[in-house]
Amino acid sequence: AQSVTQLGSHVSVSEGALVLLRCNYSSSVPPYLFWYVQYPNQGLQLLLKYTSAATLVKGINGFEAEFKKSETSFHLTKPSAHMSDAAEYFCAVSDQRYSSASKIIFGSGTRLSIRP
Amino acid sequence: DSGVTQTPKHLITATGQRVTLRCSPRSGDLSVYWYQQSLDQGLQFLIHYYNGEERAKGNILERFSAQQFPDLHSELNLSSLELGDSALYFCASSVASGGGDTQYFGPGTRLTVL
After folding, report:
1. CA distance readout (Å), B40 to A42, B65, B70, B84, B88
2. B-chain residue closest to A37, CA distance
3. A96 and B92 in contact by Cβ < 8 A?
4. Of A20, A104, B2, B14, which has the most beta carbons under 10 Å away?
5. Cβ within 8 Å, pair A104-B99
6. Which of residues 34-93 of A touch B (CB under 8 A)?
7. Which of A45, A44, A46, A49 shows the shortest CA–CA distance to A34?
8. Which of A95, A96, A99, A102 is best to mutate for the B interface (most B CBs within 10 A)?
9. Chain B residues in contact with A46 (beta carbon < 8 A)
10. Parallel/antiparallel/unpaired status of strands B109-113 and A56-58
11. DSSP structure class, residue A18
12. A79: cis peptide before it, omega within 30°?
């Protein structure tokens, strides 16, 4: 069964500092992996996704994530945090690569706070 | 704006009642997904429909049901409501039905059961 673990329910960084949000996954088949962002009182927005084309995935708003099969990780990074990055971030996995259905499992989320 | 619309935005009802949440997918999208987000359970996948057919089920209670209509809009029906059903319910849509398809989320319906 697929699962996702996000390490750290709350991360706080200073504006301009490196952002690192950790995600580890479990999947019996090569997975699809996603990072979504949720701003207060809004729905989720896709930041980036891994579908096996390249292990380093670049997303919107300067975020990127690297798929590391040996570590079963898909950590999200951004070189320099901006105040507008404050939000809830969700890592998600789908192991429906060989199916015509889609079942995405979300992690518990990491709230990112940015200190001025 | 993702292009996915959900109505109503807020819903307040009493225990034991039945409600219907509505979702209109982005133009051209054939898949609709429903999710429940609550403080204690987090974000949970409920069900996936593709072009009117159920494709995948998650942790959806028997008191809950969904359908996708010929015009591709979807409804999530919640019955015999309990206090614990209070949550944010999201709908998402995608072009096709594959596991790697990008899902576009609506703004959600906040359900409060009193």
Report:
1. 19, 22, 35, 10, 12
2. B105
3. no
4. A104
5. yes
6. 36, 42-46, 49, 51, 90
7. A49
8. A102
9. 102-104
10. unpaired
11. P
12. no
Q: Are strands A87-94 and A32-38 parallel, antiparallel or unpaired?
A: antiparallel
CA distances from B112 to A2, A23, A56, B52, B81 (A): 31, 31, 41, 28, 10
DSSP character string of B5-30: EEE-SEEEE-TT--EEEEEEPPTT--
Express each pLDDT in B28-87 by its tens digit: 999 999 999 998 888 999 999 999 999 888 889 999 999 999 999 999 999 999 999 999
Task: Give B8-30 pLDDT, tens digit per residue.
Answer: 999 999 999 999 999 999 999 99
Tokens of B25: 């997918």
Task: Kindly report, residue by residue over A21-68, the tens digit of the pLDDT.
Answer: 999 998 777 788 999 999 988 889 999 999 877 889 999 999 999 999
**Assigned token pair, B73:** 């809009």
Task: List, as own/partner pairs, every contact residues A65-73 make where C-beta atoms lie below 8 angstroms and the sequence separation is at least 24, other chains included.
Answer: A65/A23, A65/A33, A65/A35, A67/A33, A71/A24, A72/A24, A72/A25, A72/A26, A73/A22, A73/A23, A73/A24, A73/A25
